[in-house]
Specification:
single chain; mainly alpha; Four Helix Bundle (Hemerythrin (Met), subunit A); Helix Hairpins; 3 domains
Length: 276
């Protein structure tokens, strides 16, 4: 039986995607996150600045090796995965020079911490659910925009003359309504207006109920529904999703079954020929 060389693309691909290697990558990401946080401390940098810079470069080197191995194993197929492209861009930002006009871009090194999302399956599921929920979220956002527009026009007409600091124009009204929706001192605004306009709660209370409570629950419902949809898709496919470990195992089992069936067919054909 022909043995597959260790440097083959398939062997390298299995190695870099193995559970042990991915666990090491998670640990390196966490260490790198701690290093980037420590680099923000002037006191720590005065004492251990050189060591932290060296450790940061070691972490970056490990990430580059991982992505390099993936590129070698998967070639152009590497870029077919959105998560691979995400990792490639996040790590690539760290290679931008940190001098002169690129100093701000160098601060984007902290984006490497986001690689936890692509490495940990549970976090990937949450992000996939959010992406899947984007159409529903966009519809709810459009509904909220309509509610805000109607509320801003009404509040400007009703309260603008007496309370120009809150509802003097559309911009001020939109900002005040946003503050009310977030429940940030909304009662202070409502009480100030109610002190001069007794029926003002008839406007503020329904607006809070619609914007802060109903719409927020709609957002949560859409995201939960998207996550349930992902779970159902994963269950129907018999694994955690395309390219997941269980899917690969099932593919290998199907291939082995096909090989056994072919061998059985050859043996049966040989037996019939021998009898004849």
């Amino acid at each position: 039986m022909r043995t597959e060389p260790w440097y083959s693309r398939a062997a390298i691909g299995r190695f870099v995607l193995s559970a042990r290697v991915q666990t090491v990558i998670i640990v390196v990401i966490l260490i790198n996150a701690a290093i980037l946080g420590l680099e923000t401390s002037t006191t720590v940098m005065q004492s251990f600045g050189e060591l932290l810079h060296v450790l940061d470069k070691i972490c970056l080197g490990i990430f580059l090796v991982e992505i390099g191995l993936k590129l070698y194993a998967q070639r152009l197929a590497f870029f077919r995965s959105a998560w691979n492209v995400f990792d490639f861009l996040v790590v690539g930002v760290a290679l931008i020079p940190g001098a002169d006009g690129f100093a701000v871009l160098r601060a984007l090194r902290v984006l490497r911490v986001l690689r936890l999302i692509s490495v940990i399956p549970s976090l990937r599921r949450v992000v996939d659910a959010l992406v899947r929920a984007v159409p529903g979220i966009a519809s709810i956002a459009a509904l909220l925009a309509i509610v805000f527009y109607v509320g801003a026009v009404m509040s400007t007409m009703l309260f603008g003359a007496r309370f120009p600091e809150y509802f003097g124009d559309m911009g001020a009204s939109l900002f005040s309504l946003f503050q009310i929706m977030t429940l940030d001192s909304w009662s202070a605004i409502a009480r100030t207006v109610t002190a001069e306009i007794p029926w003002a709660p008839a406007f503020f209370v329904p607006f809070v109920l619609i914007s802060a409570l109903t719409v927020l629950n709609l957002f949560i419902a859409v995201i939960v529904d998207a996550m349930q949809g992902l779970d159902e898709d994963r269950t129907s496919k018999g694994g955690p999703g395309p390219g997941g470990p269980d899917t690969e195992v099932l593919a290998e089992l199907r291939e082995l079954r096909a090989q056994v069936e072919r061998m059985t067919h050859v043996i049966e054909s040989g037996s019939r020929s021998a009898r004849e």
